[in-house]
Structure formats: C-alpha cells, structure tokens
Amino acid sequence: MLNLYTLPAVEDGAFENFCGGNLGGEHEACIDVAAVPGAVEAFELRDSKPEGAGQKLRVTAAEVDDFVLGWAKKRGLAL
C-alpha cells in the first residue's frame, strides 16, 4: 500500500470545510478535507479548531467511505 504521508503537502486553499456547532466562531467546529496531490482517491482531513492546528490524517477514499457509512449507521442517520 502507498504511504500517503510521503506524498506532497496539500495547499491550504485546496481544503473544503464541513462545519457544525460553531462553538466559538465561524469555523470553530469544522473538519477540513482535501485531495492529496499525486494520489488517486486519497484525502487529508484536518481539524479547524486552533487547538487542533497541524493535526492531519491521510486516508484513502475506501477508508473514508467505510467510516462515513459506519458512522451514519451507528448514529441512525440517513444518507
């Protein structure tokens, strides 16, 4: 399996954010996501909160899909 952490950095402008709650500001409770350059269907997720600055997770599309479907099912959410 390709080591996603060896691929180039994601530019800040490439991130899209998904927000909810907004505990302390406009983008305080967001998860940002962007495609990883040089990879097919790989993504970087990061925390938008100041305390989470610099914390990043790289995952494949299959890993994100599995998480999203499992999370929605566990929480009783409809897709």
Describe, in short, the structure shown.
This is DUF397 domain-containing protein. With 79 residues, the chain is of the alpha+beta class.
Structural summary, described in words:
Residues 25-70 form the DUF397 domain. This is DUF397 domain-containing protein. InterPro entries: DUF397. It comes from Streptomyces luteolus. The protein is an alpha+beta fold. The chain is built from one helix and four strands, in the order ββββα. A four-stranded antiparallel sheet has the order 1-2-3-4. Strand 3 (42-47) and strand 4 (56-60) form a beta hairpin. The longest helix is centred in the C-terminal third of the chain and has 15 residues, at 61-75. The radius of gyration is 14 Å and the shape is flat. The mean pLDDT is 88.
Rg, Cα atoms, Å: 14 Å
Helix content: 10-25%
Low-confidence stretches: none
Count of helical stretches: 1
Secondary-structure-based class equals alpha+beta
Distance between the termini: 29 Å
Describe the main β-sheet briefly. 4 strands, antiparallel
Strand content: 25-35%
Tertiary shape: flat
- List how many beta strands DSSP finds: 4
The side-by-side strand order for the widest beta sheet comes to 1-2-3-4
Q: For the residues shown, what is the average pLDDT?
A: 88
Order of helices and strands: EEEEH
Keywords:
79 residues, alpha+beta, four-stranded antiparallel beta sheet, 1 helix, 19% helix, flat
